[in-house]
Amino acid sequence: MQVSARNTLKGTVKHISFGTVNTEIIIELAPGVEVTSIITKSSAENLNLSEGKEVYAIVKATDVMIGID
Question: What total number of domains does the chain contain?
Answer without folding.
Answer: 1
